[in-house]
Specification:
Keywords: Oxidoreductase
Structural class: alpha/beta
Number of helices: 7
Protein name: Short-chain dehydrogenase
Number of strands: 9
Pfam families: adh_short_C2 (PF13561)
GO molecular function, one term: oxidoreductase activity
Distance between the termini: 34 Å
Strand order of the largest sheet: 3-2-1-4-5-6-9
CATH topology: Rossmann fold
Number of domains: 1
Strand content: 15-25%
Family: Belongs to the short-chain dehydrogenases/reductases (SDR) family.
Bound molecules: nicotinamide-adenine-dinucleotide
């Protein structure tokens, strides 16, 4: 049983935080899950004891590696129903004018271009299902919706993810594929600043005045991955503790 019984999912950023909570939740809901992250061994340790989860190493900046991870999902499970793009980086904290070309390019390469590579590979496999179909969930950020105290390339890359989501949702709708975004507010993962003062400032942006747990964000991702969200496509759900209300 479970809300994803019989489904096959691939989750990037699956070794930590929101991605790992999603892998665990999907497996509990009956899915077979490929957890993809930079380091295969670290990913395998993270998902150990999670029945139905398989760890794969891939850098989402490398399109051949992304394609290979999806081929692995197809070889292992014969189909693909759900893809979640949670791999992401916050980037260097620096004054705008001190940001280097590489600082900007690398955040875009992971958060936006990496999401495109993964979406493209997911659509290829979902079109091969009979009948064709699937659900893609891209992790953006409340930083794409409102001013957020992070370096400029982070909200820029995450706003790009929302545009990519809407564009692809329109292009693949007739293939039975839905594409949506989740834009979390401050979430308790290794990405949240360790410095207590900065952390407090970020968390206090939401009227609930706390960080989300990774499991709370995985709950929203599960909804968008499952058939319960069958009439959602091209949309953004933002669990953000009341930071942005709309
Ligand atoms: P996290 O650091 O715990 O997890 C991110 C994972 O992505 C890590 O395991 C990391 O190894 C992986 N990753 C980074 N670069 C990669 C690459 N090139 N290829 C493959 N994997 C790569 O952080 P998290 O908070 O769980 O972040 C998950 C997503 O949620 C990110 O996209 C992040 O931007 C987004 N997000 C986080 C917050 C928050 O407050 N934590 C808020 C909004 C959005």
């Amino acid at each position: 049983g479970g809300r994803l019984a019989g489904k096959v999912a691939l989750v990037t950023g699956g070794a930590s935080g929101i991605g790992l909570a999603t892998v665990r939740r999907f497996a509990e809901e009956g899915a077979r899950v490929l957890a993809v992250d930079l380091d295969a061994e670290r990913t395998a340790r993270a998902v150990a004891g999670c029945e139905g989860a398989v760890a794969v190493g891939a850098d989402v900046r490398d399109s051949a590696a992304v394609d290979a991870a999806y081929e692995r999902a197809h070889a292992e499970f014969g189909r693909l129903d759900v893809a979640v793009n949670a791999a992401g980086v916050a980037g260097a904290q620096a004054d705008l004018c001190d940001l280097t070309d590489e600082d900007f390019a690398d955040v875009v390469a992971v958060n936006l271009t990496g999401t495109f590579y993964s979406v493209r590979a997911a659509v290829r496999l979902m079109r091969r299902n009979s009948p064709p179909g699937g659900s893609i969930v891209n992790v953006s950020s409340t930083g794409a919706l409102a001013d957020f105290p992070l370096p400029a390339m982070y909200p820029a890359s995450k706003a790009g993810v929302l545009g990519l989501t809407r564009a692809v949702a329109a292009l693949v709708a007739t293939d039975g594929i839905r594409v949506n975004s989740v834009a979390p507010g401050a979430t308790d993962t290794p990405m949240l600043p360790g410095d207590e003062r900065i952390r407090r400032a970020v968390v206090d942006l939401g009227v609930l005045r706390r960080a989300a747990s990774a499991e709370e964000i995985a709950h929203t991702i599960l909804f968008l991955a499952s058939e319960e969200s069958a009439f959602y496509t091209g949309q953004t759900l933002s669990p953000n503790g009341g930071y942005v209300m709309r």
